Amino acid sequence: METRHDIIIVGAGMAGMTVALALAKGGLDVVMVERMPLSAQVEATYDGRASAIAYSCFRQWQALGVGAALEPLSCRMNEIVVTDAHLPGAATKKPSPFFLHFDAAEISDRSGDEPLGYMIENRHTRAALHEAVVAAGIRLITPAKVAHIKETPGQVVLTLDTGEVLSAPLVVAAEGRNSPLREHAKIKTIGWDYGQSAVVATVKMEHPHNHVAYEYFLSSGPFAILPLTDNRACLVWSESHAKAKALLEVRPELFHAHLMQRFGEFLGQVELTGPKFIYPLSMALAEDMYRGRIALLGDAAHGIHPIAGQGLNLGLKDAAALAEVVIEAARLGEDIGAESVLERYAQWRRFENVSTSIIMDGFVHLFSNNNPIVRVARDVGMGVVNAIGPARRFFMEDAGGATGDLPKLLRGQII
Length: 415
Ligand SMILES: Cc1cc2nc3c(=O)[nH]c(=O)nc-3n(C[C@H](O)[C@H](O)[C@H](O)COP(=O)(O)OP(=O)(O)OC[C@H]3O[C@@H](n4cnc5c(N)ncnc54)[C@H](O)[C@@H]3O)c2cc1C
What we know:
13 helices
């Protein structure tokens, strides 16, 4: 039997669950399809990452009722220090005289005393979003995948591998960067492998992190120390694929020795608090945000390098924009999967998604480069931005996701 809904969302990752909540709060009938049971996704061994969430994106979660569950698990990121570094002992040495220092206090009059962002472990975010999805009465079909797709003039009919048949005038592909629905829609991607993988680990530190995030640019790739609750930090250590694999496989004592040799006494005594994870780094930017009645959202539309922690934030901004466009179209009695509606979504998001992907790609090439001329140029660039107050403040507000034409949810308002 076929069940009809307003919107089918395929992929219940953090972006997919956020848009589901926003659409359901706007009165639409949403169903989700996810290949991986949520109980597996919140295991400590599933995803070791923590994400830096821009304050505007965090406001969206607050507006959707997820803020109370996430606040105790979030660590304010009040300052960010970005600098070039040399090995060994990169963080112990005096920083390069050309560095960037962002301090939330500088824009507190405009941001309402928000931090530059919040650091939250992905598994906590998934659990909180999942709880909210269940509480909102959204049906989540899992484990399940789409086995067959039929597009008719007014709707898309999806047959799942469970045998269930769903139909809707709009389907959202939120399946991450290898989106099968994007392939079905024949939307091409532009992208490449960076030849780097990120090793991610959580450590408990002896010295207080004071809510400061550090990003060191080394020739092998960036190394970030991102503050978490309980004086822990999430390390994102980028290396060539082979070295990253070796770091993943070495015994904890050897990993610890590498860490201390590289970063000296900066962190004080450091203790690994869980497993290490590895993520190959690549870019995959979709040429279109929609085709037919299938709209792309999150990494399905733009998978980028995590050099500045922008990937999920872009997906959360997609969620806010798509929800606003679709809810308003429904209220006006429009066909929510029509090209005229999805084009409004694409126009809202296309520029930021493409420009951020290109800028992040440029950063990767600029900062993973040991050419002395390039090093001098980037150091001077950082020094100049750091010295000019308005430029520094612009970058801080941009990192907070508070620039441009913001959808209501990113301003903390419900649609
Ligand atoms: C090391 C690292 C650090 C990062 N740090 C940050 C950061 O600090 N800040 C930030 O903003 N971003 C960060 N990112 C990027 C961020 O993790 C991603 O952008 C984000 O997870 C994408 O979310 P998503 O919901 O779009 O996709 P995903 O998280 O990939 O979720 C997709 C969902 O779809 C499901 N799925 C897949 N295929 C199917 C299918 N065929 N059928 C049904 N379901 C399917 C999957 O199981 C999954 O649940 C980082 C990335 C890396 C690698």
